[in-house]
Amino acid sequence: MTTPVHPRHTALSLAASVVPVLPLRRGKVPFGNCPACADNACGGRPNMKTPGPCDCPGVCHAWAAATTDPAVIVSPPWAAAWRQAVCVGYHPGGAGLTVVDLDDADAIAWARETLPATRTVPTTRGEHWIYRGTMTSRNKVRPGVDIKSTMSYARYLGPGTGRMVDLPDTVRALAVKEPSPALPAPRSVSVPAQSGGGQCPHRTPVFLERGIAMAEQRITAARSAIHASVYGTFLAVLSTHGRCGCLTDTHITRLFTAAQTKGETARHCTDAWTNARTTLGL
Q1: Nearest residue to 148 (alpha-carbon basis) of 103, 108, 179, 104
Q2: pLDDT in tens, 174-230
């Protein structure tokens, strides 16, 4: 009877081959950050472009914790994680590799017709096709296909079979996002003007300009919960200026543009604006 290999032993073997590794817990996901690193309080290691633990000794920051240092892998802070680990993860980009993750039979059939043959590793539902070279990681580049390379991790499932070949342009092209559609003309704010002939009653026009600039800055500075930040900003602007008739298409376009630079779609901008107006009864 074959004795199962402990994940830590597998990790040490991979690290000796200069493959950065990390433990994965149940669900094949990384361990959570330690209290000192919660919510990226330590500086946000996932923004790093090379693997490596942060200053704390814990198994933090998912792919960025991956290491080839055997002293780290066997250190006391990692020991508890290995006792709970169900498998080994690795950072493909840190090893100079790209994994095309094929989740089902249709995705495999597409790959066989489209991509050059390379080293292949069977997975629970499909296959990993491993190429030599790195690129930007991106999920769901097509049905059942994810790309794992830089700033990502993959589950180690064995050495695989077949000769590994260089990363083809066909795969690189999959991660290129299509240009965002042109920003549509924003919906004008049709609200009854109050006394003052539509001029902003809030002291001077400078007050309105400052408010719009601050709203743009608030959206641009958002690092998480972008949808909520955009909606909250729209709500704040409309609650202050929505009833006096001082907002113009130019002002609204500035807000929509700021939101779209954070990844929001034109449709979401319009919906958020409409919902904010509805909430305020405009």
Answers
A1: 103
A2: 887 655 455 454 444 443 333 344 556 655 667 777 778 888 888 877 766 677 778
User: 89: which strand partners?
Assistant: 22, 155
Sign of the torsion angle spanned by Cα atoms 57, 62, 63, 66: positive
- The pLDDT assigned to 190 comes to 42
Coil, helix or strand at residue 193: coil
Residue 242's CB is within 10 A of a number of other CB atoms, namely 19
**What is the rounded (10 degree) CA torsion for 16, 22, 24, 30?**
-160
Q: What integer pLDDT is reported at residue 269 of this predicted model?
A: 80
CA–CA–CA angle 135, 141, 143 (5° rounding):
145
Q: How far apart are CA 270 and CA 278, in angstroms?
A: 12
CA separation for the pair 78, 233 (Å, rounded): 42
Decide the pairing of beta strands 145-148 and 154-155: unpaired
